[in-house]
Amino acid sequence: MTARPKPGSKADRDALRHDMTGAGCTVADVAIEMRIRFRMRPREAWRHAYGWTLQEAADRITQISSRRPGEAVAADASLVAKWEKWPGPSARRPTPAVLLAMADAFACRVENLLDLDDRRALSDRDLRLLSGAVLSPAPEPTPPVPRASGEQTEPSRSDLVRLAADESVTWAQWAEASNVGDIALEQLMADTRTLASDYLTSDPLPLFTRTRVLRDRVFALLEGHQYPRQSADLYAAAGYLCGLLAWMSSDLGQLRDADTQGRAAWLCAELAGHNDLRAWVLSTRSKVAFWDGRVRDAIAYARRGMAYRSSGTVAVLLACQEADAWSQLGAESEALGGLAHTADTRGSVTGEDDIGGIFACPPARQENYAAAVHLRVGRPADALRAADNALTLLATQPVRAYGTEAQIHISKAAAHLGTGEAEGAFEALAPVLALPPDHRLAPVTRRLSELPVDAGCPHTSGTASVGLRAAIEEFCLDSAPRHLVLSSGEAAS
Fold first, then answer.
1. Whole-model pTM above 0.70?
2. What's the confidence (pLDDT) of residue 169?
3. What is the spatial distance between Cα 126 and Cα 456, in angstroms, rounded to a whole number?
4. What share of the chain is helix, strand, coil (3-state, %, to 5)?
5. Mean pLDDT across the stretch 17-22?
6. What are the contacts of 336-344 at 24+ separation with CB within 8 A?
7. Rounded CA gap, 352 and 359, in Å?
C-alpha cells in the first residue's frame, strides 16, 4: 500500500494548483490558498502558486530585476530559500530591491509578499521605500497549463533551440550581475585599515563591535554573487577582519575565541589565495598560541608564516615572535639567533603593509620584543638598552600604541629590578599604572603580574615592596579582561 504524501508535499501542491487553475482561479487565489492550507510564508506560497522550483524563481528574479537600473539582484536557489523563510531562523532578510524584484517576478504587489511578521521585522525606512515603490512593467507569467496525469509535452526542435538560447542568456545575465562594485571594495579595505590603526589608540570593546559589524557586512556580501576577483577581495577583507577580531579577543583574555577567529581568518586567506594575509594570520595565531601557553605551536606558526616571504613587515614580526617563544622556553641560543634574524629581515623589507596599524611591525615594536627576549635569557642590561631604544623610536611615530608602550615600560622596570635598581623600576612603571582600565589589556596585566617585585628589591623597604604589589594587583583587577569576564556573569577568580 502506497503511503499518502504529507500535507503540503509536491503532490498536494500540484493537485491544488491543477484544481484551482481548472476552476478559473487566479495565481493570487492559488497563493492565498497555499498559505492557508499549507501554512506557508507568503513568498514561498507565491512561488508554489506558479509551480516554480527555487532555481526557476531565482532565474526569473535575476532576469527581471535587470530592468530596474541600479537595482539588479543576483539570486540563486539558496538565497531564494533564505528570503522565503525570513524572519525565521536560518533565514536572510530580503532588501527592498530584492522584494521589488520578487514582486516583479511574481507579477504582484509587494504587499502581497509580506505578512505581519515581515512588517514587524522590516525597518521603518524599508517600509517607507516599499510603500512608495512602483513596480516596473512586467508581463504576468503564464500559469502552468493543467495536464492529465502522466502527460508529457515535448518541445519542438525550434522551441528547443530557442529554449537553450533563453537559458544561456538568463545565465549570462546572472553571471554579469554583481552585488558589490570596485569602489565598495576599496571602501571596505579602507575601513579595515582604519580599524587596524584605531585599535592602537582606542578602547578595545567599542572597536571590537565596529569590527564585528564590518565583518558581518563582508560575510553578507559573500553570500551573494560577484565576479571571482571581487570574491577574492572580499575574502581578503574578511580574513583581515577575522584576524583583527582574533587579536582583540586575545588582548581581552578570550584565547579560545581568539583561536576560533584565527581559524576563520585562515580559511579566508586560503580562499583569497593571499600570501600577505596568510602570513599575518599565522602571526596572529602565533600570538594567541604564545599567550595560551602553547609555545611550540607559536614557533611553528611563526616559521610557517615566514615561508610566505611577504614584502611587508610581517616577516619582521614573525621573526620577533619566534625569538620570543624560544626565550620563553629558555633556549638562549635560539632566542638570540632569532633576534639577529629580525635585524636581517628588517633589511629585506621591500614593500608597504596592506593594512598597517596592528598589522605592521615598526622598529619600536621590534625593539619591544628584543627587550622581552633579553630579559628572559638573563641579560637585563641589554633589555634596558632595547627598552630605551623602543621608547625613543616610539616617540617618533605618528601613532603611539598604548599596549606596546606599556609593555616597553614593563620591560624597562624588569630590567631595573634585574640590576637591583628599584627606584628606576618604580619610575618606569608609573605610566603603566596610570593607564585607564579599558586600556589594560591581557598581555599588559599578565606581564605586570609576573614582575619579580620582591626579588628585585632586596634593599628596598618592605613597605615599598608591599605597596607596589598592591598597586599591581589593583591594576589587574580593574582591567578590560576582568570587566569582560564580570559582565558576562562568569565567576571571578
1. no
2. 65
3. 65
4. 70, 0, 30
5. 86
6. 336/373, 336/377, 338/373, 339/369, 339/370, 339/373, 342/316, 342/366, 342/369, 342/370
7. 11
